[in-house]
Amino acid sequence: MDRDVLLLGIAAVLAGLTATLAMLAIAYSPFVFLAAIPTGAAAYFLWYQASGRLKEDMRSRAARRRAGRRADEAPPGGDSRFAREARARMGDGGRAGPRGTRGTQRSRVGGRGPTGGAAMSGNAGMPPGDARRTLGVDADASESAVKAAYRDRVKETHPDSGGDEEEFKRVNRAYETLKTE
Fold first, then answer.
1. Which CDD domains does the record match to this protein (predicted)?
2. Residues 15 and 43: beta-carbon distance below 8 Å
3. Are 101 and 76 in contact (CB under 8 A)?
4. Do 72 and 82 touch, CB atoms closer than 8 A?
5. CB-based burial label for 94 (10 Å; 0-12, 13-18, 19+)
């Protein structure tokens, strides 16, 4: 704790020095900016360390490396809570294949999906009649009507907007069923 307060104090002094050098550069000579840049960078890095963000970033990078991804690459599906939960449900941490490479083609029924888990193409486990009722479309609805109904239902049922997670899953299964018909 005392170290962090000391680092923050030094960062504040360097930030003040940077501001002073920037003003002198404006008033006298632009070459003074050459001295302001490294002092500003040092102030930023000291603040970054003292705030704990450096440690946090280093831990997340190490976790990504352990998961088989580069440090600057986002995990498949993003970093949102919903994406993390989906990867956790898949059981493989979002890694794909034996070397962490993603599949680029759709899986066949009975094959392996792009994440190394079971393929999700084909019938999503819901009869087409139930899928149409879930999405609220007629049997002769066009692909664009099914997509529009799906988008409306997803907005209503998404857990992040106060919807029921089970109903959200049901809407997704219904759309997958009708999409592959």
1. DnaJ
2. yes
3. no
4. no
5. buried
- Distance between CA atoms of 69 and 74, rounded to whole angstroms? 8
What are the residues facing 118 on neighbouring strands?
Answer: 112
Please report the DSSP string for 10-72 in residue order: HHHHHHHHHHHHHHHHHHT-GGGHHHHHHHHHHHHHHHHHHTTHHHHHHHHHHHHHHTTS-TT
* Domain 128-179 indexed as CATH 1.25.40.10: no
Euclidean distance between CA atoms 152 and 132, whole angstroms: 14
pLDDT at site 76: 62
Threshold 0.85, pTM exceeds: no
